[in-house]
Write a structure and sequence with these properties.
Length: 138
């Protein structure tokens, strides 16, 4: 039995960090629906936030016998990752915090979080016409 090896780039700035993981790996591990909207997406990669989502990945990778090595990259400025699209479930049902917390009986199809200019308050794009419906603190 061969061991799957994966090298992950970990990008961090003074406030947070993200692990760059190919979406296909999340799908192979079956965890693509367990990643929160605190992570980001770009060009076939998920940028897993360093707390919950990175832990979810590490546990699933270990359970699958995957050997993960990490290469760290740090900037003293704000990371470019903060400008990427927020992670949304690739399987068609929105599981962003806004939709989950709203208690909607039928969550809308995929959406994206919409953030104010400061990046501190957000709501699901499905509520964009009336953001007073749902407002979250990051």
């Amino acid at each position: 039995m061969s061991t799957t090896k994966l090298r992950v780039d970990f990008l961090s700035d003074p406030g947070h960090g993200w692990a760059q993981v190919p979406m296909e790996v999340l799908q192979q591990l079956g965890i693509e629906d367990r990643i929160s909207d605190c992570s980001y997406l770009r060009d076939g990669y998920a940028y897993l936030e360093e707390d919950l989502d990175w832990s979810t990945f590490v546990e699933a990778a270990a359970a699958a016998g995957m050997v993960v090595t990490v290469r760290e990259h740090h900037t003293d400025r704000l990371s470019r990752v903060r400008n990427y699209a927020h992670y949304t479930s690739p399987n068609g049902v929105c599981d962003c915090r806004a939709c989950v917390q709203s208690g909607l009986p039928d969550p809308p199809a995929r959406c994206e979080m919409v953030w104010d200019r400061a990046g501190s308050r957000g709501w699901c794009s499905k509520f964009e016409r009336d953001p007073s419906l749902i407002q979250l603190q990051k």
